[in-house]
Each structure stands twice: as structure tokens, then as C-alpha cells.
Amino acid sequence: MIKVGIIGATGYAGAELVRLLLNHPQAEIKWYGSRSYIDQNFADIYRNFFELVDASCMDDNMEALADQVDVIFTATPQGYLAGVLTEEILQKTKIVDLSADYRIKDVSVYEKWYGITHKSPQFIQEAVYGLCEINRNLINEQTRLIANPGCYTTCSILTAYPLVKEGLIDPSTLIVDAKSGTSGAGRGAKTPNLFCEVNENIKAYGVTSHRHTPEIEEQLGYAAGHEMIINFTPHLVPMNRGILVTEYASLMKKVTYEEVKAVYDRYYKDEKFVRVLPQGVCPETKWVEGSNYVDVNFVIDERTNRIVMMGALDNLVKGAAGQAVQNMNLLFGLEEATGLNLVPCFP
Asked: Which residues, including other chains, have CB under 8 Å from residue 200's CB and lie 6 or more apart?
């Protein structure tokens, strides 16, 4: 059994990790780390785990706890892991970090967009960006540190990646319009996330300044073979879970539906968790909820010579905890879908 520790277990992504790992046939949670709920019973914080989890939350002393586990998931705010990670910890255990601390290779870009000083930049180059469908060959049993991608970024990148990689779209024209459920903002009490603020409302936020922008640009830039600059606009919608992205770009040449569909199929036909939908079917968040799937599709606008690309995923599963488990499976040489064969929930 893989011995697992979770820091930030009482956040939404951390609790989703608990839900997934309880059903993982080859993983055992050894401790639940939470700075806010030390010594409190985990099942008292999340009553859905009543009689399923009989453990109290511990503090988040990684140095002391690393000896007890094979892998630590850090579902923590930006800057936490960068502030505590040491070579000694990495020699004891593997880390799958759900924050952005090691996702961006240029530390100056990270510090500019996140507004904090990176405390351990010496580990940035070692970290593997854990978008499995693209970087699977970089993740193996020798990998020590995984930078688990964000929810907006996972959906945005996978939706456009085949067309950027094949040069079918002009990368300089890419616009990403994204919507997220409120769980994407975390569990902390914030006035903008109160029921009366969110219900019957939709709003853009982080316009031209959202922190996931450079992550999308960097990863799609690798696909394009040069630096990219995009427009990324996120929106908050009154639902619990889900990411929906609609992306627009100019085509480099006239193409048919069949030609574009063949590109998506070539990239994703062997990817269990990316589903390319039939012609005319648009992705919807309700058809991926509770699962590790990403649904993608596209429509060619012949009138404007542009293409509209669409993607949907569950921000807490494929956008966070599910992808982290997918990475754990690769780290330990397991079949990638182990513990993740989840049928989407409906209604």
C-alpha cells in the first residue's frame, strides 16, 4: 500500500482527495494535516465521512511527518510549500503540490503574478508539470516533485492543445472565456462568495490579471514552440462544481470538420480521461461532475474563419484531486486510472 499524507485536508480539494483515496485499492491515508483544525475529528468537519474516517487532524509539520509516508499531497495556499520544502523532505517522500508554487518555470513571472517572493526556487526546474495527457513521459518512479495543474488551466490547455501543437490556429488570436463554480474559490469565508452575493448572479473577475494566465501561456507556448500571450477571462457562476471554457482563435487555413476532428482524435483517442464529443454536442459541466473526465469539442465558424473550442471538467476532480491521484499512480508505477473509474454524477 502507498502511505499517503495530506496537508490541507480540510479544504475542498483536500477533502476531495480523501474521498478518492478512501476508494483507492493501493493507497492508505496515514494522516490528515490541517492548520485550522488541529486535534479535531475529520468526520466532524466533513460529516459525509461519518463512520468512514476515524482520525483527528494533525498539524502541518512536513519535516516531522515526511518520515511516515511515501507521498504527501499539499492542498495549500500559494507560498506554503515553497516556504517549507527542503532537500531533506524530498529525500524522504514524494510531493504532489496542488498549489501554483512550482508550476511556472520562470520565478520572476510567478512572483509578478502571485505577488509573493518564492522561498525555494532551487526546486522549480526539478518539478514536473503534472498534466498527465501531455507530460506523462516525464513522470515516473524517480520523480520527486509534481506541480499539479490548476483547474482553469487544465481545461483551457487540453481544449486547445492539439490545434496549437499542429499549428492549425493562430496562437496570437487565442481568447479563453472561462466559468467556474464557487468551490474553485476555496472554503475560506469571503464576502464575495456568500450565498446572497453569488446566487442569481454571474460576474467576471481577475480580468486581464488572473494568476492562471501565465500558466496557460507557458504550457501552450511549449506546444506552439514559441512564447504566447492570450486573453483569459474567468467568471464566477452560482454552482458548486465545474469549469466550462469557451475558446476562440483564428484558423491558419481553411479546414473541414473532419480534418479538425481527426487531429483531436489523434491526440486523445488513447486518453481515458479526455472525451472528444460527437459533432454538434457541446460540453456541459453536469456531464462530468464528480468524475475525472474532460469533455471537449469544437465548432468551425466559416463566416469568420475562426474556430470555437469548448471544454468542461469538474474543478475538484480533474481540476485538482483527481489529477493529483492520477499523478500519484504514475509516480508509483500503477495503472493511471486506478481509483479514478468514476461515473459522472447526475442529477
From this structure: 238
